[in-house]
Amino acid sequence: MGGHSHWSTIKRHKGAQDAKRGKIFTRVIREISIAARSGGDPDGNPALRQAIAKSKEVNMPADTVKRAIQRGTGELPGVQFEEFMLEGYGPGGTALLIEVSTEKRNRAVAEVRNILTKHNGTMAEPGAVAWQFQKKGLLVIEAQPVTEEQLFDLAIEAGAEDVKQTPNGFEVISEPADFEAVKEAIQKAQIEASLSDLTFLAQNHIQLDGRDAEQALKLMDLLEENEDVVKVHANFEISDELMEKMAAESA
Fold first, then answer.
1. β-bridge partners, 239
2. Judgement on whether residues 245 and 175 belong to the same structural domain of the protein
3. Shared domain check, 68 and 186
4. Where are the beta strands (DSSP E) in 108-160?
5. How far are the Cα atoms of 27, 123, 132 from residue 101, in angstroms, in the given order?
6. Number of domains the chain contains
7. CATH code of the domain in which 24 resides
8. Which residues make beta-bridge pairs with 197?
């Protein structure tokens, strides 16, 4: 029997496509600047360390990172971004938690509402769906020469909350405060993570197929293409067989 992928894993496989949109740098720069508001020294600022790590993953020039930090600390002039969450529903009654970073709140809200309305979704009142998600550290381990028992012992000793087996490997889940220690332990063991992030994980998932699955993926794409949207979290699952079929059809 085939497995199922939920959105936090599905989007990992869409990374190359997202990179082509040319918006990764913009989003990472925003994340660095926002994190730097709490201090420009990464040694004492975990959020900034995480943002800088992302900049290295996308090969961002050191000068660009430095300027982003200086804009955040106020050493350089720059646009001040506001961070907030929007909530909504997508195809099949899926719950959506949308992270926004923008200098124009009204514009961002209107654009997200418009995308949802036009693609079988609706905006929700604050708190309507947020309760279905928990902020966690997530490491996705794929195609690595490690057993579940070995990874479990390593991760739990480093402070992880759980290790789950998936059709393609494992997911290591931790509390946000323990994420960096767990990530470092995994790296020291020379185990490569295909996805490493602080994210919001759904507590329960809705299985989508057919048209609902296609519409949900299209809606996620459109939301994440918006320049003010940082991340989209959803509680749907799609079978691996259907994902492969849709990927083949769109190739």
1. 4
2. yes
3. no
4. 122-124, 133-142
5. 9, 17, 22
6. 2
7. 1.10.10.200
8. 138
152 vs 19: CA distance, rounded Å: 32
Instruction: Say which residues have a Cβ less than 8 Å from residue 177's Cβ, sequence separation at least 6.
Output: none
pTM for the whole thing?
Answer: 0.79
Residue closest to 109 by CA, chosen among 94, 90, 126: 126
Q: How many Cβ atoms sit within 10 Å of the Cβ of residue 26? A: 11
Residues contacting residue 122 through CB under 8 Å, at least 6 positions apart: 88, 89, 116
Q: Which domain holds residue 104?
A: 1-14+81-251
CB within 8 A of 15, min separation 6: which ones?
A: none
Choose the weakest-confidence range: 17-26, 64-73, 104-113: 17-26
Residues 35 and 3 in one domain: no
Give the tens place of pLDDT for each residue, 175-218. 999 998 999 999 899 998 888 888 999 999 999 988 999 899 99
